[in-house]
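pasting for the record
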Amino acid sequence: MLLDGRLHFPSPEVFENYMFGLKEYEVIGEDSFLSLASVIGDFQSENLRLSEDQYSKTSDFRDTPLLSMLDKDGMLVIDDYIISLDFENQVAGVTKDKILIPLLRAKDFSHTGIKVYTFEEELLNILFGNEGISKYLNNEMGVDTGDNMRILECPGTPRPGLNLPYRPTPAAGVTNPREDRVTSFSLDTPPIGGYIYRINAKHAYQAAALYFRLKSELEHYRRTDDPTSIFSPDQDPFMSISYWGDFTTARRSKVFLDFCWEDCEGCWPQPANRQKVQKVHWEAGRRLTQVNLYGIYRGRRGGSHAGTNALPYEFRLVPIIRS
């Protein structure tokens, strides 16, 4: 239900089912709900109470369902727990005391009646234990094994272990670097046909206490050969991601990854062209306890717009290794 401008869920199961589209629980007044997602597009909005840094740090979650469930102050209620997410400091404040709501709204978690958890901690398990795991997880919808998951058959795709360059290059002597959630790479190319092209590649394990996602992503952009111009999404029909590795949750067996991804999944905003290829490996309210994620990124600089001048690229990212 909607109460005091916030979504109230009676249990973690209902919350998680609702977050991933199994909306068996009717939210009365949902049409009048002002979510964080609805106001974050306008940083100058009087309804947006985020600092500039906090606003910037929500960007990794703008294509997730989480921001649509938080109110304009980044809050919601599950059972009797009032929860406030602070994206700037990557922590969650939790209390049952309604008197402390103004502090939660202001991201002041210093009161002894507010418990503080990092974004890396699995809040649903901490607050509710192993009970109330959603149908989303019980049905194993967190791992897509449908027809769109193609076994690694991309033409020319090297198998793991071959000599492809890492981008960015790890520091000298570091063969297995460990990153906090995200390893990314951006490549600006020399001008082709009057345009500068940019390729962004990313592995990401994103954590926000109530929401966890593991994904691989490749984006293609271009701008005119003018330093004052800005990069805009641009078509590259040759993009693909090959990935391999495995991940584990506390209550599930290990999942092994070995596929090729050529279509857009869960891209936000929905592109009018192929400027983005994204594969979401895991998305749930439950965290991963171990991750080994590797990937090969391939495409052509300039895509179809560069024609015969399009230069192929192929590289790996520093893998995410977490245990």
